[in-house]
Amino acid sequence: MQRLKITLSVKRIFDIVCSLFLLISFCWLFLLLGIAVKVNSKGPVFFKQVRIGRNEKEFYIYKFRTMVKDAEKSGKQITVGDDRRITKVGMTLRKYKLDEFPQLYNVLKGDMSFVGPRPEVPRYTKLYNEGQRKVFLIRPGITDYASIKYRNESRKLSKSRDPEKTYIEEIMADKLVINLQYVENLSFVIDLKILFLTFIHIFKMEDTKHEDSDVRPNRSI
């Protein structure tokens, strides 16, 4: 228990220092991306949505908008394959995960951590069993092992007759197994490894024809 408290304290200090440093250092990039989103398509610069965080508390997650205005009303709440609702700027933001940049604010506030289980929407967390709800013992994160493993999901879902069912019964279930293992073996050293792997997978050069774009069911805008 004492080890857990120390690890969580170290994580929080790291989150505050790094998120504040990045927000200040890259405020110019923040501004440019916001202008690009606004100029490329009508609608707000940011997309916000309710997610479930530590101790099952609701919070708003922030991202740069990557889809057309009111995309959730004009189609499914999951992105499968090459979703036509994604804007041109949105495609680039998603490719390099730049749409996640506003989540530094969530990290600074304490809603999230740099590393931890990706936060889900209430619609899906209601499906968790008692054991799976242990993921709520810690703050959700911007990245984790599950996000790295399933960074290329959309093409798999595009081949499914029922993408949401496939996500819930196969992908989400496996992600929860991975996340529970992370919670049980919580370590700041592991966090650093995950951050390094995330960076590598974002920027490594691969044949994009064999890569699947990221998919975020019910939280993809």
Give structural notes.
The structure is a single chain. This protein has 221 residues and is mainly alpha-helical. It has one domain. Helix content is 48%, strand content 9%. The chain has 9 helices and 4 strands; from the N terminus they run H-H-E-E-H-H-E-H-E-H-H-H-H. The strands form 2 sheets. Strands 1-2 form a two-stranded antiparallel sheet. Strands 3-4 form a two-stranded parallel sheet. The longest helix is centred in the first third of the chain and has 24 residues. The protein is globular. The chain starts with a helix and ends in an 18-residue tail after the last helix. The C terminus is likely disordered.
Apparent shape: globular
User: Helicity, in percent?
Assistant: 40-55%
Q: What characterizes the major β-sheet?
A: 2 strands, antiparallel
- Mean pLDDT, to the nearest integer, reads 86
- Over all CA atoms, what is the radius of gyration? 17 Å
Number of strands: 4
Low-confidence stretches: 205-221
N-to-C CA distance: 38 Å
Kindly give the count of domains.
Answer: 1
**What is the number of helical segments per DSSP (H or I, 4+ residues)?**
9
Q: What is the succession of H and E elements? A: HHEEHHEHEHHHH
Percent of sequence in beta strands = 5-15%
Q: Going across the major beta sheet, what is the strand order?
A: 1-2
Structural class: mainly alpha
Compose a concise summary of this entry.
This protein is mainly alpha-helical and 221 residues long. The chain is 48% helix and 9% strand.
Secondary structure layout:
Elements lengths: L1 H24 L1 H14 L5 E7 L5 E7 L23 H8 L7 H7 L3 E3 L6 H4 L15 E3 L1 H5 L4 H5 L4 H22 L3 H16 L18
Parallel strand pairs: 3-4
Antiparallel strand pairs: 1-2
